[in-house]
Amino acid sequence: MTRRLGPILALAFLLLTLTPAPARADLTAFFGVTTTPTNRSAKGIAVGVSLVVVGFEYEYSHTSEDEVNAAPNLVTNMGNILVQTPTGGVQLYFTAGGGFYQETYRDFQTSGFGTNLGGGAKITLVGPIRLRLDYRVFNLHGEPLYVHPKRFYGGVVVSF
Known about the structure:
Blueprint: H1 2-18, E1 24-34, E2 40-51, E3 54-63, E4 73-84, E5 90-105, E6 108-126, E7 129-140, E8 150-159
Antiparallel strand pairs: 1-2, 1-8, 2-3, 3-4, 4-5, 5-6, 6-7, 7-8
């Protein structure tokens, strides 16, 4: 009986450590600025699921057109993977993803596949409410007016 207890305890410990952590979901509403070729407002929403260090999100963003400075309207729909610190107070993350974009300016319109790289922080404010700061660099394929738009935003995150 004693000889079997060691392997049974080792197996129980292994099963407990291999049990996945519960997934957490969050919803982010954000407002920021796209800086390419000139500063214009960007707003959107992101929905994500996190498994401690790795997370996945879908993000929709709309950047307004600026006719005076010849800056196009840009809409992106991106799926991203996040690698993040497992800490609670300030959670740093790196993100990469891809999806589709549509760029319009006056009579010009193009759409295609795009990718993005970025990073940021989610900062706990109170309970499930967090502040999110994010920076992204996009790579738009096809024939967009601007291939590498950059965006910075701040947002409010609700975790559930």
